[in-house]
Amino acid sequence: MPPLVLIAEDEVPLRDLLAELLVMEGYRVRCAVDGQEALELFAREVPDVVVSNITMPRMDGITLIHRLRDDGHDVPVVLVSADEVTVDLPGVVLIAKPFDLDDIASAVERGIARPSE
């Protein structure tokens, strides 16, 4: 079965673009509108990688990562943000918006290939 990527992104066009890219790359994809919905989807099926925006309603991407880590999940996370931020969390890659789609695909591929900790 292909690896599963969970996308948490509140901007519909960007969420759809990321989903289309990752499906074309051969991944299964689930989409959430924010961190809260991402947690709900995560509880149903643990993804191999999470791609998340930082700034979202209800629950932002940083809070999502902390919740996942607090629950013992070390799933790789690709964070995207238009804001200038620094993130120093294990297993997290930050990609600035606007980004090249190849950068997202490469970061997801690296996350999938990452050895279990």
Features:
21% strand; 4 helices; alpha/beta; 117 residues; single chain; 5-stranded parallel beta sheet; Rossmann fold
Describe this structure in words.
- The protein is an alpha/beta fold and 117 residues long.
- It has a single domain (4-113), classed as Response regulator (Rossmann fold, 3-Layer(aba) Sandwich), CATH 3.40.50.
- It has 4 helices and 5 strands, in the order E-H-E-H-E-H-E-E-H.
- The chain has helices spanning 12-24, 35-44, 61-70, 101-113, and strands spanning 4-8, 28-32, 49-53, 77-81, 92-96.
- The chain has a 5-stranded parallel beta sheet with strand order 2-1-3-4-5, with helices on both faces.
- Helix 2 (35-44) runs parallel beside helix 3 (61-70).
- It is globular and about 30 Å long.
- The chain starts with a strand and ends with a helix.
- The mean pLDDT is 92.
